[in-house]
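Lab notebook page, bench 4
Experiment: in silico fold of construct C2
Operator: M.H.
Input chain length: 93 residues
Purpose: comparison with the prior construct
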Amino acid sequence: MLQALLFDVDGTLADTEMAHLAAFNQAFAQVGLDWHWDVALYTRLLEVSGGKERIAAYWSQRGPMPETVEGRPVQDHIARIHQLKTAAYEQAV
């Protein structure tokens, strides 16, 4: 018999934001970006829903976002950063 049913959205039962922040910074370093998000900046960026969207929003805040990076669409580069971030986060938790 079912004793309990839990629904969780990341961050609801456990505070995981600092692990996400560290993973973002690790991913930025892996792709050679000199970006470093501190807690204050990350807190503001949390107003943007979604990791890839958060990266794009930050990039746009820094100035015009390029159409391409290393000959590929910038959205592909953002997706790669996010993929690395997710891997770093999963390894950490």
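Observations: The first strand starts at residue 68 and ends at 69. The longest helix spans residues 74-92.
Next step: discuss at group meeting.
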